[in-house]
Amino acid sequence: MNDTTNRQQKLTGKVALITGASRGIGRAIAQRFAAEGATVIVSGRSLEHSVILPGTLAETVALITQAGGHAIALAADLEKTAERDTLVARAAAAAGGLDILVNNAGFAEYCPVEPMPMAMFDRTLDHYLRIPFALSQAAIPLMRARGAGWILNLGSVTALAPLRPYSVFDSAGGVTVYAAIKSAVNRLTQGLAAELEADNIAVNSVAPSTAIRTPGADQHIPAQYPTEAVEYLAETALALCHLSARERTGLVAHSLHFPLACQLPVYSLDGRELLPPPILSDVVHPHIVPSGA
């Protein structure tokens, strides 16, 4: 259904840096934040030509601009230390400050522990823990100077312990290292939230309740697995990035559960259409805390 009401935009005047925004979840979050009035700085390796997977920053900027939003593209290969360590400063310089950091970038590689090359382990650790750590370190002083801020880390339902009897995915899917690092991301989120609450900087994590088909994730998702639309995660991300730290911080939230628990309306990525409430499938992990752990 179309939403014809004049809703107040939640992120007017805010600047958000979103990594991994050439495609998939990062692009969706950028679109949703822009629809709520934020200036979004979209970062990734693929500026005008795709490096590994389909999708570029130029395409993301075009989608946002066509919808009436404001986006700035900043190319950065976060595996390169110099580009990683200057990204936050470049983003703040390009947009006049920084209010929100979304640590989304990463390329998932699955392999059982025994045969996993150390180089793959190191890349997984870098993508999903070292890079969010480094970008958060750089962003904190900028947010503190503005009197408030929001850091959002992308989590994964795989961070929850596998259920018995073990599924084929858990026993043979090669997810163990990725899942362990995502579990560490959740603990980093909760600990950093405690450290920064007094500075009014909120730190939260969001993950799909099931899985979302994206160019990077599709190879790891069985064809028959019931996935979810990215709009529900983008709406949850927005909900975690506009209230003060005193109101909402330290949460590990999941994209279908959180809107239901908090009775959040979910909108299309351009903010113009109200979507149906999410429906929980029978594959959701029973230990997810609906309102956020």
UniProtKB/TrEMBL annotation:
Q: In which organism is this protein found?
A: Paraburkholderia ginsengiterrae
* Keyword terms: Oxidoreductase
For this chain, one GO molecular function annotation is: oxidoreductase activity
Q: Which domain of life is it from?
A: Bacteria
Give the matching InterPro entries.
NAD(P)-bd_dom_sf, SDR_fam
PANTHER family, from UniProt?
OXIDOREDUCTASE, SHORT-CHAIN DEHYDROGENASE/REDUCTASE FAMILY (AFU_ORTHOLOGUE AFUA_5G02870), SHORT-CHAIN DEHYDROGENASE_REDUCTASE FAMILY PROTEIN
- An example Pfam family from this entry, by short name, is adh_short
Keyword Magnesium among UniProt keywords? no
Protein known as = Oxidoreductase
> According to its UniProt record, which protein family does this protein belong to?
Belongs to the short-chain dehydrogenases/reductases (SDR) family.
